[in-house]
TrEMBL record:
Name of the protein: Dithiol-disulfide isomerase
DSBA-like thioredoxin domain location: 17-193
Superkingdom, natural source: Bacteria
Keyword Isomerase: yes
GO molecular function terms listed in the Swiss-Prot or TrEMBL record: isomerase activity
Length: 233
C-alpha cells in the first residue's frame, strides 16, 4: 500500500484516550466525532476520556481538496446526522479552503497545551468550516477560531505557527498515514489496540465520485459506547 519507511509506526493510544486520525474536511470524520462527543456527554465521561487528534491529510494523498466531492458527501451524510450541522459552501468560491495543512498544524500546536485545547480547537475548526463557511486554511481565521474556544492560549499558538515547529508533527502523522497501520479518515484507536475505520457507516457511490452521490447503506452509533469503555480500560 505504501513506500513509507517501515521504521515509522503509529504510537499506541494512551490510557483514557481515543486516538483519532482524520482530515478536517472529511465529512465522515465530522459525523464520527459528533457521535462520539454526544455519547461521551451522555455517559458523563467528558473528564475521563479525551480525544487525541492526529492528521490524516487527504490533500497530501490526493492534491487540493475538491469542493464538489465535499459538497456531495455533506449532502449524503447530513441526511443521516443533521445534528452534526452540515451546510453547503455558500461563501465565495475563491474563499474555499483547498488546503488545511496550517489548520492541522494548529491542532498539533494546541496539543502542546494539552489534549483539551487541541480537542476544542479541532472541534471549532470543523464547525467553522461545515457550519459557518469560514476559510479555515488561513492563518487569520485559524487564530480567530482559536480565540473563540476560550481554552486555547492564542499567544502561544501564534508563536508556534509562526515558528513552524509543529509542521514536523503533521508530516510525521502523514508518514504513518501512508502505512497500512491507518486505513483512512476517520480511523479510531483505543489503548487496547482496537481500531475501527469509518465506524458505524457503510456507503457506496451512485455515479462518479464528486459528481455522483454517496448513498449510506447502513449507519449506527452503537460503536461509541464500546470505544469509550475501552478507552477507560
Amino acid at each position: 500500500m505504501t513506500d513509507a519507511p517501515s521504521t515509522v509506526h503509529r504510537p499506541a493510544a494512551a490510557a483514557g484516550t481515543i486516538q483519532v486520525w482524520s482530515d478536517l474536511l472529511c465529512p465522515f470524520a465530522h459525523v464520527a466525532l459528533h457521535r462520539l462527543r454526544v455519547a461521551r456527554e451522555r455517559l458523563g465521561l467528558q473528564d475521563r476520556v479525551r480525544i487525541d487528534h492526529h492528521a490524516f491529510p487527504l490533500e497530501l494523498f490526493n492534491g487540493p481538496h475538491p469542493r464538489p466531492g465535499t459538497d456531495s458527501e455533506a449532502v449524503g451524510l447530513g441526511a443521516i446526522e443533521p445534528a452534526a450541522g452540515f451546510r453547503l459552501w455558500t461563501a465565495a468560491d475563491w474563499l474555499y479552503p483547498n488546503t488545511v495543512l496550517l489548520a492541522n498544524e494548529a491542532v498539533a500546536a494546541a496539543k502542546a497545551q494539552g489534549l483539551g485545547p487541541a480537542e476544542d480547537l479541532d472541534r471549532a475548526l470543523r464547525r467553522a468550516f461545515w457550519v459557518d463557511n469560514r476559510t479555515i486554511g488561513h492563518r487569520t481565521v485559524i487564530l480567530e477560531v482559536a480565540a473563540e474556544t476560550g481554552t486555547v492560549d492564542v499567544g502561544a499558538l501564534t508563536e508556534a505557527l509562526d515558528s513552524g515547529r509543529h509542521r514536523a508533527d503533521v508530516m510525521t502523522d502523514y508518514a504513518i498515514a501512508r502505512t497500512d497501520e491507518v486505513t483512512g479518515s476517520p480511523h479510531l484507536f483505543t489503548p487496547d489496540g482496537t481500531g475501527v475505520h469509518n465506524p458505524g457507516i457503510t456507503v457506496h457511490w451512485e455515479g462518479p465520485w464528486a459528481s455522483g452521490f454517496p448513498v449510506v447503506d447502513e449507519h449506527d452509533s452503537d460503536w461509541t459506547e464500546t470505544l469509550l469503555k475501552k478507552a477507560m480500560g
